[in-house]
Structures
1.
Amino acid sequence: MSTTTGLVQMSYRQVRGETYGPYMSFRYRENGKQRSYYIGSSLSEQILALEIMHEKLEADRERHYMDSLLTKARQQLRESKTKWNKNSPKSDSL
């Protein structure tokens, strides 16, 4: 199953003694790999980042739900095959 968790990280840059920032980036892990998206420093970009995080969270929840449905379907199929094999007559025609 693929899961993602992330955070918005605030950082500052220092060049020749002057401090610039804050700069925002969205950091998360996806399928065991670290990912990072630069967001920017304005409030509108931060709001956009929050919307993106909520979209990813919703997609992850949906993926998790679909994975659980697939697991249940496989279990039901396994149980049905077991019942079918128990109830079917054995033929020695080979």
Note: The chain has one domain: 4-83.
2.
Amino acid sequence: MSGIEVAGIVLGAYPVLLETAKDLREVFKDVKTWWRFEREFENFLSVLETEHIKYSLNLQILLEDLDIPEEDKDTLQVDPTASGWYDVQTQVKLRRRVQDRYYNWFMRQLAAMNRALGDLQGLLPTIHYVNFSSIEREMFRLKTSFTHRKDVLLAEVRDRNNEIFTFLERAAHLSSSRTPPPPRLARKQTTPLLALQSEATALYETFQMHLHCKCDSNHPCGISVSRMDGERDKPATAHLKMLFWDGPCRTQVRILPIPATEIKTMEPPKPAASKLEEVSSFHQQLSTRNRLEAVRKRSSKAIFALAASTIPTFSSPAFGKSRKGSGKPEDKPAKLKLIRWPSNTIKKEEAENMGKASPPTVRFADDSPNEPTAEYSIDEGSTVIYDLCRTINPTTQSIDSINISNLGYLECKSRIRLLLNLDPENQLPLQGYKIESFEAFVRATPRRDARLKVGRDLVLAILSLGTSSWVPASWTAKDLFLIRDPTALVPMPYFNHTSLRQSLSSDESRSTAKQTRDSLFSLGVLLLELVFRDQLENQHFRAGLMGPNSKPTAVTDLATALLWQQKVEEELGHDLADCIKRCLVCMFEQAATPDLGNSGFVQAVWQQVVRPIESFISAWNRS
């Protein structure tokens, strides 16, 4: 018995051991001194049941992607004597599933668990009589010899179960064949999503570069991915969206990438001439004109033309044209207006000096001006943002303005610049939008299809933000909030950052694979909560999956979620249940390595999670 059939033997050892222990409990509970042993024995049964469930879930993961009929998978998961455990072809497929380089290690874990279960079975006596004095002696013997040895064997079973789960979660994702490149249609779907991931990373790094203010605000914000023109099924129309608030004031912006080549640097406009300069110039022109008129009357036309050509004002083409014509009266000079200087703004001495030319000065190369040179985009409506704190602070924005929607753009390290546009242009209605928590939304939304639409938008947000720092590590429903726009059918989910400054200062190193698994697991849990309008912590069978001292272990949440997921298939069908399960265990066809930045993996999530949810919503609306 050195083959994979050991997995079936272990599957059968659990119920046999549990039945023996429960039979002993029925015999021992009539003994007067049972109360001294009852608590320890009940804990033993609880731990054993938990390990049985964990092992069943491990088998479910092991058999998930096996190329055998579904009914054969179901039989192998519940029947330790099924012929499939001894079938040569099934054994070959299981070995390929585990991979040759891990196969011996995997078999050692199964063998160690099988020995530990057998030793536990040997500790339990078999009672064939009803002599209460003999039963009491047997219970006392079991109590004294059972306590320490039982703990060692249970720890062995628990460790082997955890090792197998860790292996199936990580190493079993590897595939001997390379993942084929996504088809052309798939690239059309994944390319915009991967582009959004790059923009999200660039936005985070750019905010780190520019937000160094010392104001009192923590700059709370939320980030999401919205759809343009209402086309929610086309990732090419998606864009990043951020909401900033300061008390009751809110500002929402849309992030649009602009290639650096499309932004032109233009010279700043020259300052307009002062009123005194205009008056002085007009006096000079009028005096010159009067003198020329006197010359024209006393001299010949040649002398007049020679005198006029020496004066720039009258040698210009515009002046020459005004002199042409047959007998037309000349334009009369405009009347001068008296200029009064406000006493509270400009003093008399300053007014007198305004018309004087400033003396020439020399500015060396290292003498930079105080204000940077203004830069404009192609439409001359975008300026570079130097004060990010002021730009994103809602109290500095005019919420009732609909004329200025372009806040400017941010310089990035990459070859793009990020344009910040108000969204919507009129921010006044935004102040009245309802903001609610994820739990409040679930309680207030009885329609299942509406709840799952939010779940679909959340999947797209994960695919668009990837493993960037905008997505909190090991996020839960508490890291989300939703904005309910009265004109939209469903609210939009946002990832919440209560302190943008603190989020930007985080230097936490992240593993791409771990972040991907954690995000998809959280996504699967939230999809379950959206389906059933309940929380994972409220499931009654969760108590049986706790570790020692009724504390959750590393696999308690996963085991609870997988048991809860089975209810989805019973009530709503295989497709929706399958997409939730794939999120929970992070296993996708044609995607060996969990990486949200990989085109093949993103495409697999799109096809195996987003599509089934959309199909379910469509079918629900038709019914």
Note: The CA atoms of residues 232 and 273 lie 53 Å apart.
